[in-house]
Design a protein that fits this description.
InterPro entries: RVT-Znf (IPR026960)
Number of helices: 7
Protein name: Reverse transcriptase zinc-binding domain-containing protein
Helix content: 55-70%
Bound molecules: zinc ion
Pfam families: zf-RVT (PF13966)
Largest sheet: none
Domain Reverse transcriptase zinc-binding: 2-48
Length: 143
């Protein structure tokens, strides 16, 4: 859904004629779109770069389409690193979207109870750990 740009992001809701506050549900400082949430948003980028760091990788900021191209080029094969990155990418998409929805629908931001970037990273870390039988050799928490 995220790669196909089919998530009900605010830019899509506006295109469908639905009146919504179009600011990003995570950072509230930019227009919300798939490209913003998964490649431009400061909140999400802290989490994504923590994931890359945990895998011993680094990456220049990429637009969403270039990020997907990077994933398609680099997530081939069956090595442990590829498996970890696939799990981490899936966890990243899932937990970022979940946090965006929590902030929008539970109004936690008003109460200051938002989950931070570290918590998002730890959720991805937990997903990777539970799916790789606890193999921590490639995924080292930066915090
Ligand atoms: Zn944002």
């Amino acid at each position: 859904m995220a790669i196909l740009d089919r998530l009900p992001t605010k830019d899509r809701l506006v295109r469908f004629g639905i009146a919504v506050d179009s600011s990003c549900g995570l950072c509230r400082s930019s227009f919300e779109s798939r490209d913003h949430i998964f490649s431009d948003c400061a909140f999400a980028m802290v989490v994504w770069h923590a994931i890359l760091h945990a895998c011993g990788l680094s990456q220049e900021p990429l637009c969403c389409n270039d990020l997907v191209r990077w994933l398609l080029l680099n997530l081939k094969g069956k090595s442990l690193m590829v498996q970890v990155l696939k799990l981490a990418w899936s966890g990243f998409i899932y937990f970022i979207w979940e946090e965006r929805n929590h902030r929008l629908f539970r109004v936690l931001a008003v109460n200051g109870d938002d989950e931070g970037e570290e918590t998002m990273f730890l959720r991805v870390d937990s997903t990777v750990m539970s799916s790789t039988a606890g193999n921590r050799c490639l995924f080292q928490a930066p915090w």
